[in-house]
Amino acid sequence: MARKPDEYTVHILISNGHREEVRFPTIQEFQKWYSGELVPKADSKDFINVPIKNIQGEYMVVRPANIVCIRVEPVFFGSVDRDSV
After folding, report:
1. What is the per-residue pLDDT for 85?
2. Tens digit of pLDDT per residue, the chain (85 long)?
3. DSSP string spanning 4-67?
4. CA distance 10 to 17
5. Coil, strand or helix: which one is 78?
6. What is the torsional sign of CA 84, 74, 13, 17?
7. Looking at residue 52, what is its pLDDT?
8. Which of 3, 68, 71, 77 lies 20 to 30 A from 17 at CA?
9. Nearest of 63, 69, 73 to residue 30 by alpha carbon
């Protein structure tokens, strides 16, 4: 049986070499932000909001044209894989 990730870490590489990490509770939440906010403004130099749901009172903005790559990593909170014991 396939395990379900507890959340998704999204690694954003910006053109100047800076890296940022944000978390999404589901892959659908990431896809909604990606397709609704980032893709339509991909060549824009205007700032867009990047949701940071885990940190209260903090936010991040980025220029979509400066994003070089995005890596989406599923995160599993369970530290012991019972099948390998």
Report:
1. 46
2. 678 999 999 999 999 999 999 999 999 999 999 999 999 999 999 999 998 876 677 888 999 999 999 999 999 987 555 555 4
3. PPSEEEEEEEETTS-EEEEEESSHHHHHHHIIIIIGGGTT--S-EEE---SSTT--EEE-GGGE
4. 16
5. coil
6. negative
7. 83
8. 77
9. 73
- 24 CB contacts (<8 Å, ≥6 apart)? 7, 8, 10, 30, 33, 51, 53
pLDDT at 11: 96
Residue written as token pair 């099948």: 83
CA distance 45 to 24: 24
* Coil, helix or strand at residue 71: strand
Instruction: Let me know how long the chain is.
Output: 85
- In whole angstroms, how far apart are CA 35 and each of 21, 32, 46, 71, 79? 18, 5, 17, 15, 32
